[in-house]
Design a protein that fits this description.
By secondary structure, the protein is of the alpha+beta class. It contains five helices and four strands; from the N terminus they run E-H-E-H-H-H-E-H-E.
Length: 168
């Protein structure tokens, strides 16, 4: 993990790390750095598909629940048809939205690894400044290109304030 005092030095180091071929990178900044998004590898999230499938299951489940209730417990009111699908739309829509939202929230928490109350970088005393005025780049040891001898020298040409090996 390397710390940087300025946003420019941080972005230059991030470009350098990406050119070296590292993919498992974590950054910690006191505010959103705009050019950072283009430099970090971002895998596509499965959350939209999870929400789509959950919404489709919730909506079809709501529709068939109402259909089942009308077929097995018929109530003839004013000569209306028993299977009146327009009457099913509000509940079907509401349960579609509810199941998609709940599945999306649960998938986000599960995929993000929350609640994570401890992270190895928290043990570094300099990391407290990540929310104040320092920028940190952490190259994870599970990166395929991570050799322990090369990782420390990776940041030497980028002029960091400090380089620290974080032991998990």
């Amino acid at each position: 993990m390397a710390s940087f005092a300025s946003e420019e030095a941080f972005l230059e180091a991030l470009r350098h790390v990406r050119k070296a071929g590292y993919r498992r990178i974590e950054t910690f900044t006191p505010y959103r750095v705009e050019l950072e998004d283009g430099l970090l590898p971002g895998p596509r999230s499965p959350i939209p598909w999870i929400m789509f499938v959950a919404g489709a299951l919730g909506g079809s489940g709501a529709y068939f629940m109402q259909w089942y209730a009308c077929r097995d417990y018929p109530i003839d009111v004013g000569g209306r048809p028993l299977d009146s699908w327009p009457a099913y739309i509000p509940i079907t829509f509401e349960l579609t939205v509810l199941t998609a939202a709940l599945a999306g929230a649960a998938a986000f928490l599960w995929l993000a690894g929350f609640p994570r109350l401890d992270h190895p970088v928290f043990s570094d005393p300099r990391f407290r400044r990540a929310t104040q005025d320092r920028f940190f780049i952490c190259v994870r040891s599970d990166d395929p290109r991570y050799p322990a001898a090369h990782a420390g020298s990776l940041f030497l040409g980028t002029n960091p304030e400090s380089i620290e090996e974080v032991v998990p």
